Amino acid sequence: MLIKEISTQECLATVSHASTGRLGCSFQDQPYVVPIYFASEGEWIYVFSTFGKKIEWMRANPKVCVEIEEKVSESESISVLVNGLYEELPEPQFTQERAHARQLLAKKHHWWMNAMAERRVGSEDQQVEPLFFRIHVDSATGLRWGS
What we know:
Blueprint: E1 2-6, H1 8-17, E2 20-27, E3 30-37, E4 39-41, E5 44-50, H2 53-60, E6 63-73, E7 76-88, H3 95-105, H4 113-121, E8 130-146
Antiparallel strand pairs: 1-8, 2-3, 2-6, 4-5, 5-8, 6-7, 7-8
């Protein structure tokens, strides 16, 4: 098996066409990793969510990472790790950014379903407040491996 480090540009290209990944955050030296649906553009990763543990933890510690895996072929895969900073996009000060995030996410299949379904199943309150956040990509590293 060959393992090769890939360039930052190739990492960002992988992120740009991916729509799922794993978000890592931490609070009081405890890590937490959850799957997310996302869209990206340039140095930003956009996510739709509802309030919960990850939001609470990222508000306390905005340093996060996102891991993306892509299967290139039966014998080749890419893994990318993005480090960055969480930024919530509340109304009304981020109205344009929220609209932009919604526009990017709308291009992805079922971008809203995971967050809303998860929260509604876990809550008696059917009026769940949606929120958008973005992650500024500070660095990206990746590996390509296969035969």
